Amino acid sequence: IQSLKNSEAIVATFIQGVDDTDRPYTMVFSSAPDDDGEMASTVVMADSMGNSFRCQVEVLTKNEQEGEEVFATYPCAPAMFGPVHIAKLVETQGVVAEATLRTPGADEMYGCLGEPVENDMLDGAIHLVHRGSCTFEDKAWNQKNRYGASGVLVVNSDPEDLFVMSGSDSEESDKFPPTVLISGNQGKELLALY
Q1: What are the helix (H) ranges across 8-134?
Q2: pLDDT in tens, 162-185
Q3: Each residue of 43-59: b (16+ CB within 10 Å) or e?
Q4: What distance separates the 2 farthest-apart alpha carbons in the chain?
Q5: Backbone φ, ψ for residue 179 (5° rounding)
Q6: Is 187 exposed, middle or buried (0-12, 13-18, 19+ CB in 10 A)?
């Protein structure tokens, strides 16, 4: 796709499928140069009925004088399970998870430990985990089951790549918290803030 404004190329990837209600959907991943010449990605999910959703992670800072302020914004890619699946987004008209970010401990970097912890460890936070060692569904379920996570942010092992995280189209998709993927570089940047 060619940009009409500045004649620079925009890279777009289209993914088509059918959701669990047999309604077709299309996901569009696009990358274009930002003001600094770096490739910036945007992820838009759409179905054939005209519904569309943008996937974005915003990091907020809070202080008593100024209130909340957006500190950083990252494009993300959704999971094909849980409340960020296109069929669920159409039902709910979108989902927002707002909570404290919890970074992983050394023994749980990948989010694959599933045993529940003591009730006083339930935090309702958005949990950051790294890609690898278990399925995306396992990561999401483990963080919810283990800590009561209100969301899961998966850091890709590739520094720049975003992709749709696969799922099993399970009947139990409601058991998962909102789960999205950010690039490895964005994950590194986010971890440096903590």
Answers
A1: 86-92
A2: 888 887 765 566 789 999 999 999
A3: bebebeeebebebebee
A4: 57
A5: -135, 125
A6: buried
Pairwise CA distance, residues 24 & 73, whole Å: 29
Closest by CA to 25, choosing from 158, 139, 169, is 169
Question: Closest Cα to residue 45, out of 170, 169, 148, 163?
Answer: 163
CA distances in angstroms from 139 to 35, 57, 109, 112, listed in the order given:
35, 18, 10, 6
Distance between CA atoms of residues 78 and 27, nearest Å? 10
Indicate yes or no: pTM above 0.85.
no
Tens-digit pLDDT profile for residues 103-142: 988 788 999 987 766 666 678 899 999 999 999 999 999 9
How far, in Å, CA of 43 to CA of 20, rounded? Answer: 21
* 112/118 Cα distance (integer angstroms): 17
Please tell me whether residue 114 adopts helix, strand or coil conformation: coil
DSSP helix/strand/coil, 147 = helix
Residue of higher predicted confidence among 65 and 74: 74
178 Cα distance to chain centroid: 7
Q: Are the CB atoms for 110 and 128 separated by under 8 Å?
A: no
In degrees and rounded to multiples of 5, residue 140 shows phi and psi of: -65, -50
